[in-house]
Specification:
Elements lengths: L6 E8 L10 H16 L22 E4 L3 E4 L2 E2 L1 E8 L2 E8 L24 H22 L1 H11 L6 E5 L5 E9 L5 E4 L5 E4 L3 E4 L1
Antiparallel strand pairs: 1-6, 2-3, 3-4, 5-6, 7-8, 7-11, 8-9, 9-10
């Protein structure tokens, strides 16, 4: 289902030998998308600094990143990102609910239009493409650390209750405990154990 007025787009990243792990491009896409959406919600990016990602001033609690690359607006899913690797290429697909959002049984969804924000898809793509290219440059030039730091700035707080559903059907409940150095999700379990999760569907409790 692809109703007119939303964004459906893919881009290609050709991997180089010196690049960080390809999977961390999920975090790159997420922080670029959050930055682009924030622009249309009325925030203004500050100048880019070489040693750190750009900062955005915005109202707290409005946009939140959920691992690894979901963007939530007022707790409802606004966008989806999928990565697919073929040899030395990673295809990054991004869908954003600008004008419409689906009614899903298992999660809340929303659109920018539902929040009174009208956005032309072509204008949004221009902003997103610039942000993504800049973050890929930081990822390549400085490694995953700057991207990871920005992702954590925009994520739900440490201690947030999460459920992770693994590919084998196992469900793990825990408290968000940040990201490991490579961008994997870490959960603090009730037993006190710290669990590192590299792939799962994650839900806020």
């Amino acid at each position: 289902m692809s109703p007119p007025g939303n964004v459906y787009a893919s881009t290609l990243v050709r991997l180089r030998g010196s690049d960080p792990q390809a999977a961390t491009l999920a975090l790159v896409a997420a922080v670029a998308l959050e930055e682009a959406v924030a622009v249309f919600l009325g925030a203004s990016p500050s100048p880019v600094r070489r040693s750190a990602p750009p900062a955005l001033s915005r109202r707290e609690g409005e946009l939140v990143l959920k691992w690894p690359n979901d963007l939530l607006l007022d707790g409802a899913k606004l966008s989806g990102i999928l990565l697919d690797r073929v040899d030395d290429a990673v295809i990054v697909g991004i869908g954003v609910n600008l004008a419409h959002h689906p009614d899903l049984p298992d999660r809340a969804t929303t659109s920018l239009a539902a929040h009174g924000v009208g956005v032309d898809p072509a204008a949004f793509l221009d902003v997103l493409a610039e942000a993504f290219a800049r973050w890929v440059g930081l990822w390549r030039g400085e490694g995953i650390a700057a991207v990871r730091a920005r992702w954590l700035e925009r994520a739900h707080p440490v201690g947030t209750a999460l459920t992770a559903r693994l590919a084998d059907g196992i469900v793990i409940d825990g408290l968000f405990d940040g990201l490991d150095p490579d961008g994997a999700l870490t959960l603090r379990l009730a037993s006190g154990e710290r669990r590192v999760i590299h792939a799962a569907d994650v839900f806020l409790l």
